[in-house]
Design goal:
alpha/beta, Aspartate Aminotransferase, domain 2, globular, four-stranded mixed sheet, seven-stranded mixed sheet
Length: 428
Amino acid sequence: MSTKRSESLFQEAQKYIPGGVNSPVRAFQSIGSVPRFIRSADGARMTDEDGQEYIDYVCSWGPMILGHNHPAIRESVVEAASRGLSYGAATEMEVRMAKLICEMVPSIEMVRMVNSGTEAVMSAIRAARGFTGRDKIVKFNGCYHGHSDGLLVKAGSGVMTAGVPDSSGVPDGCTRDTLTADYNNLESVKELFERWDGQIAAVIVEPVGANMGVVLPEEGFLSGLRALCDENGSLLIFDEVITGFRLKADGAQGYFGVRPDLTTFGKIIGAGMPVGAYGGRRDVMSVVSPVGAVYQAGTLSGNPVAMAAGFTQLTLLKDHPEWYQELNARAARLFGGIGRLLKEYEIPAVLNTVGSLGCVFFTPDAVIDYASAKRSDTKAFSDYANHMYDHGIYVAPSQFEAMFVSMAHGDAEIQETLDVVEEYLKEK
Ligand code: KE4
């Protein structure tokens, strides 16, 4: 499979863009191969600049749940763009989008559009701090909530102390109020509430961890967080940038039946256009400017062209709840097939899946949190991923990401993928 054009573009790109990419994971560093420069995409497939076609399981990291280049979404973008790209003024489409999100997700009484998941999380945390008058927040090791300073944090020396920066350029002061706990470990959260009694504004969690690979919440974990926040007067924030509108129309909160106070969205909500949002309880959202004292703003927030894309995708999902059963059934066929092959060829690997999200961890042990995820054999993953790329299957170029299945992945794509996986595993 030729990567000549991608290689030359990558060389050129590195002269002008740090690492040659506009987001680090796209550099394919962790699998040590040439990042494929994509030229076009349609349905479940993408074509790179060398003319190679791939079945795509990244789906732009989640947004393309209905597949690439969906005709209704494309037409809505073209129509909106024909009337202008941006006005910096209120538009009817923003009202329709906000109303639709509130209709689809019962916990959302009010919502504010922003331009990325990072911005959604940063703003939700500010609103939680403004509403509670408290400074501390709790996040979980292995969960990623975008690149705002206060969330680029890792566990401090003593787990009871504040987080320490997990990126250079982030002053200690920015992470001093960020406490870290372990996913699926309610005890580690209880200890923080005891140590920082009355000071914790919010707990933020990915209701399904999807940035350490896919890690499912164990029975009672999410409801336990709900109870702890209620007992301590703190807010529960679900970061549904990945799970929102994916697991169900009302996301992971609907799927697991736990109601957060605030939710952050991204990805699917924009259908591939740069859109994020945060929303939830009316009393909490009422602290946000210009109504309340929590400032948050954005030149292109609610951009009419981006709203058209997101509104069309969300409307299609709302009007076709049966698509979730179909999507999850297709994903089950794919992941079930991979699971059977791993077993048949006695590969030391585990498969974590939920709905149309999945991840193969090259470790023989259960992966239930960041520490267990990190025990995976990333060399084995890299070997597997490169085989998949070389045989026309585009998986995430990192062990610590997810596979995304879309409504455009049909039996043909699933069978083709399983054939490539089997070809790889039987050589092991
Ligand atoms: P963005 O700022 O990248 O739109 O969203 C940040 C974010 C927030 N919360 C969750 C749960 C997320 O998964 C993300 C971003 N996800 C990554 C993929 N793991 C984006 C890919 C990338 O960084 O290029």
